[in-house]
Inverse folding.
């Protein structure tokens, strides 16, 4: 089943909004830096940032490349099991494209639709692409929930009340998302009951056009059912996907420790820095901000103050976000741009 006409129109609309989203993204970064560094010494932060040990910075970049590589491995492995002709290089490219659109759209809403769009442009079935991403998301949600809960209880005594509440909200949002995902995949009957109830409630409040959405919802239910079939037939592949997702998130959560070593610091344990990062991720993942900009920076300053110390804290935040986010958004933008140019060139040649 290829993407429907409505889906194609939705993707085109998303492209039109992209430029606007990038402007908002840049504006949010500027505001974040203004509010963060009005209480921090910018000179000290830049000094710490620029004097970081290159070997550890390079290790941090390598960890991020591995992080994307594991996600690409999951997508590659699942699509290959469907019989799709895909290379690991293509899967890596799609992963970076998804990361970019997740980063610049509120609530990461643009990532998966555009990742699927680019997959279909390279003759991968839209249905198979959708199923691969659903299974990948399911693996990530399981890994994030487990590590987030563990980190929350281990780091509770080091957290401020505001971070505790944000983390609880994040755990609830991710828990509900995981429950909905699992119900949608494994119980069509219950899913239909929930959808019908939701449509009835919305209609009761006078929104008449909700019936028009029923068709696309039915298509989604069928895709979830296909996911269930795939998981039952390929249980080992699904378990491998979950295992790789745990490895992927573990690699990501190691980065603050690498930043700690890059700044020449010692005294705080690897596990303490690791689990603080799981809390930071959980506290900010439920917020509808592009790339959790602003929230991630503020949470880092709140959680890691004792570990990095007042003098190094601003530079540590800058370096951590540069390695795990800013630099790779730019790299992913280049990948998106090259891919757009390549597809346009192909289209022109066919004409």
């Amino acid at each position: 089943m290829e993407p429907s006409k409505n889906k194609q129109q939705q993707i085109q609309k998303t492209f039109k909004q992209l430029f606007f989203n990038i402007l908002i993204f840049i504006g949010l970064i500027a505001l974040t830096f203004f509010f963060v560094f009005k209480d921090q010494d910018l000179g000290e932060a830049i000094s710490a940032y620029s004097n970081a040990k290159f070997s550890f910075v390079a290790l941090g970049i390598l960890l991020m490349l591995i992080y994307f590589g594991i996600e690409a491995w999951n997508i590659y492995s699942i699509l290959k099991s469907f019989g799709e002709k895909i290379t690991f290089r293509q899967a890596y490219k799609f992963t970076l494209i998804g990361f970019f659109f997740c980063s610049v759209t509120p609530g990461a809403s643009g990532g998966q639709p555009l990742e699927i769009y680019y997959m279909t442009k390279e003759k991968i079935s839209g249905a198979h692409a959708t199923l691969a991403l659903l299974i990948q998301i399911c693996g990530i949600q399981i890994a994030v929930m487990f590590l987030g809960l563990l980190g929350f209880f281990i780091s509770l005594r080091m957290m401020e009340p505001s971070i505790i509440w944000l983390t609880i909200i994040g755990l609830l949002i991710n828990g509900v998302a995981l429950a909905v995902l699992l119900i949608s995949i494994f119980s069509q009957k219950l899913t239909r009951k929930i959808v019908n109830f939701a449509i009835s409630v919305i209609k009761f409040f006078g929104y008449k056009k909700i019936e028009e959405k029923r068709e696309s919802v039915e298509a989604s239910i069928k895709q979830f059912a296909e996911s269930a079939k795939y998981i039952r037939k390929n249980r080992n592949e699904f378990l491998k996907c979950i295992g790789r997702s745990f490895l992927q998130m573990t690699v990501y959560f190691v980065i603050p420790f690498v930043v700690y070593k890059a700044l020449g610091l010692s005294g705080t344990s690897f596990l303490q820095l690791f689990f603080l990062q799981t809390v930071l991720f959980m506290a900010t993942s439920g917020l509808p901000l592009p790339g959790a900009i602003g929230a991630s920076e503020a949470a880092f300053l709140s959680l890691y103050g004792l570990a990095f110390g007042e003098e190094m804290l601003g530079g540590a935040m800058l370096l951590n976000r540069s390695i795990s986010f800013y630099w790779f958004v730019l790299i992913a933008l280049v990948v998106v741009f090259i891919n757009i140019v390549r597809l346009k060139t192909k289209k022109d040649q066919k004409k």
In short: The longest helix spans residues 305-350.
